[in-house]
Amino acid sequence: MKNFLLLASMILLTxxxxxxNPKENTEENTKKIASTxxxxxxxxxxxHNKVITLDTHxxxxxxNFTDSINYTQDLTSQITLPKMKKGGLDxxxxxxxxxxxxxxxxxxxxxxxxxxxxxxAIHRLAEKIAPDQIELALTSSDVRRIHKTGKKVAMIGIENxxxxxxxxxxxxxxxDLGARYMSLSHNGHSQLCDSNTGEADGVWLHNGLSExxxxxxxxxxxxxxxxxxxxxxxESMRQxxxxxxxxxIASHSxxxxxxxxxxNLDDEQLQWLKENGGVVxxxxxxxxxxxxxxxxxxxxxxxxxxxxxxxMGVDWLERKEVTKLSLEKKEKYYDFYTKMLTxxxxxxxQMDNLPPAVDVIDFVNHIDYMVEKIGIDHVGISSDFDxxxxxxxxxxxxxxxxxxxxLVKRGYTEAQIEKLWSGNLLRVLDEVQKVARELQNL
Length: 442
Fold this sequence. Notes:
Elements: H1 2-19, H2 22-50, E1 54-59, H3 81-87, E2 91-97, H4 105-129, E3 134-136, H5 140-149, E4 152-159, H6 169-176, E5 179-183, H7 211-223, E6 226-228, H8 234-243, E7 248-250, H9 267-276, E8 279-283, H10 291-311, H11 319-323, H12 327-349, H13 360-374, E9 379-382, H14 401-409, H15 414-440
Parallel strand pairs: 1-2, 2-4, 3-4, 4-5, 5-6, 6-7, 7-8, 8-9
């Protein structure tokens, strides 16, 4: 018994001695953590290189599509070919965006010209400026074929159906120019449908879709253009789903349950989208992801922006003021805003003790929520780069890998990540084009 007690005492002494060196334990834990981190990064890189990464919303400025200034260069814009290559972004949906203006013949004419200039710019990039680096895709088969060649892929979406004017034939014209999705409104009610912005004042123009808007939905089904519900009102979305014979998309929206913004989809809308077979492309837009973090940081960043605007001789405008500008003045202001963002980004890097920025973690929180709510088959990814999007960790296309890394950290499999990055969106495109063929054969 005495020998047993002596042996037990020696064991306890040995154990206590081992626990008396916290530094050794800390170093060992640090090594384990580093090893695990390295393994996650290696796994994420392998997946990122295998799947087709697709971003459904990248705005453009036609001034960046000239012989002397274009996406072959590493411009200050968030999307360029060098940035896409560095970050491993394979497919960029370039956006034919037209701001909302008056519902008049002159307004429609200006909008149509603006839209055509953007179509022309995208074609110029893919066909004249850099055909060896990027190619325009019109189908999911095109996407996969081009991707196999090692080139980047361009696709075209229309943000705001306003340029259609009152001529429904423009739907087919835009399809022939390469458009494969279109929203019927933007920030403001169009001639086609009400916008989400009506929530602010409770003023609606059509109580959903206009009669012309209903015809446009039918024509989009017939031609094979995906219906985008990211900017239209909730009632507009409900009516679109009721009328559409094909699945819909929300090209750049997140979950309203996590961030109460009218640009996001609430749980009821998410359920509609699931039942319709569509997909919501989670958007990396700070104010649509985390209101509290955004507002704390935004106060400081707005003050910095105002100082930069003053130094550039530009009057700072609030978002509501910008929406009231003419198309020409909006374009000019957005030119300034893009330059300002680059300058501000560098200034912020040099500042200490800033409130935390909305980041990739906040972004993937929305993906998690919507996957849990409506399933992995109905969620995708978008940035809204060069249109206000961009978050800490995915501030431009060069940082695209960080999204995949965060998904791997959350335990998503390669098959699930493939669906989120491109599989779900391309499935919807296939189904929309199948419906179009069936309708054309009637």
